[in-house]
Inverse folding.
């Protein structure tokens, strides 16, 4: 399964780097895992923008694109296969001053909370949500990003 966290934020370079590291780590963890044929790719859009930019970065409903799809962004063709996209929005004023461990813990809690919306995507039938959530939670606890 492909996994990633895209950032839409006004966070510091260090904070963005910590989030990128988390995304890369989770990508590697899920790379060889398969939870069912209906979901091959899962991407989170992490929104943490200053209040004056809130109107431009609204949290969207979860999206599921079944089958193979192609889109073009800035002249680059992106192909996806059975892909879900979930937005996670954090209050900028609550996170912009946080250090690494506190920020990562809040993000991990938000990811775990938001993945429950996968169960509401009607086209997503052949997907072991329980095993996926358990693997994610166990990994985050093992890495000490979350407390058991």
């Amino acid at each position: 399964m492909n996994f990633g966290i895209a950032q839409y934020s006004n966070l510091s370079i260090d904070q963005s780097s910590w989030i990128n590291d988390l995304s890369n780590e989770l990508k590697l963890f899920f790379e060889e895992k398969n939870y069912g044929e209906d979901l091959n790719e899962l991407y989170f859009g992490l929104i943490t923008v200053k209040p004056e930019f809130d109107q431009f970065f609204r949290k969207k409903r979860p999206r599921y694109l079944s089958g193979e799809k192609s889109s073009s962004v800035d002249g680059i063709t992106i192909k996806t296969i059975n892909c879900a996209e979930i937005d996670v929005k954090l209050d900028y004023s609550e996170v912009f001053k946080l250090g690494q461990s506190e920020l990562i813990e809040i993000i991990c809690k938000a990811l775990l909370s938001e993945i429950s919306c996968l169960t509401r995507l009607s086209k997503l039938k052949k997907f072991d949500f329980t095993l996926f959530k358990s693997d994610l939670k166990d990994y985050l606890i093992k890495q000490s990003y979350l407390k058991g």
Q: What stands out?
A: The helical segments are 13-30, 92-95, 100-114, 129-142. The first strand starts at residue 2 and ends at 9. The CA atoms of residues 36 and 127 lie 4 Å apart. The mean pLDDT is 93.
